[in-house]
Amino acid sequence: TIANPDPATGTPRTRQQGRTQGAVWFDRLEGCWESDGLIYFDATEGGKPDVPGASGTATTELGQIFEYDPRRQVLTLIFESPSPQVLQNPDNLVIVPGTGDIFVQEDSPAEQYVRGVTREGEIYDFARSIINSSEFAGGCFSADGQTFFLNQQGGEEDTPDDSDNGLTYAIWGQFARTRGRGNGRGNGHGQDD
């Protein structure tokens, strides 16, 4: 409950009052996806400001991934990045059909990754950029769930045709459950499975 919902000039604004009381703070919401009635979204620059100079912008928060259940009105933090090597600025996201994993596409100043995150908070590397360093975006799956389409924005001169055109990839195969086969990094919020 906000004690002063109509604050006078010079007194704490409603958002400051909420944060002081422990309200969740979202920073740069960009990716969102619905699956089985649950809403998944990321805060590209959300999280604790404890990695100075790691982000490509003035903030230092490295990103968070949330699940919202509108039926129960429950918000769950699934993952919060502890370092840029684990996850840096998640942007677009999509749910992997059949596994429920979340593929997040980074928007960071370094190498670009698609990271997989299980609903239990385990993280793993799925893909890394090797053609250029522009960000991945717009990931989605074919109707049968067997092809993952992924874009790379371009704007770099080291693309295969020496242009700055964007690229689209089609990655196909059996997208199997990854639980227990992570990269050994653990998860970002201290939960052990």
Main attributes?
193 residues, mainly beta, four-stranded antiparallel β-sheet, 11 strands, disordered C terminus
Strand element count: 11
Over all CA atoms, what is the radius of gyration? Answer: 18 Å
Largest sheet report: 4 strands, antiparallel
Which blocks of ≥5 consecutive residues have pLDDT under 50?
Answer: 179-193
Instruction: Tell me the overall shape.
Output: globular
**What is the residue-averaged pLDDT?**
81
- Strand residues, percent: 25-35%
Which class do the helix and strand fractions yield? Answer: mainly beta
Enumerate the strands of the largest sheet in spatial order, edge to edge or round the barrel. Answer: 1-2-3-4
Separate helix tally: 1
- Helix content bin: under 10%
> What is the string of SSEs from the N terminus onward?
HEEEEEEEEEEE
End-to-end Cα distance: 35 Å
Describe this structure in words.
- Helices cover 4% and strands 34% of the residues.
- It has 193 residues and is mainly beta.
- The strands form 3 sheets. Strands 1-2-3-4 form a 4-stranded antiparallel sheet, with no helix packed on it. A 4-stranded antiparallel sheet has the order 5-6-7-8, with no helix packed on it. Strands 9-10-11 form a 3-stranded antiparallel sheet, with no helix packed on it.
- The model is unreliable at 179-193 (pLDDT under 50).
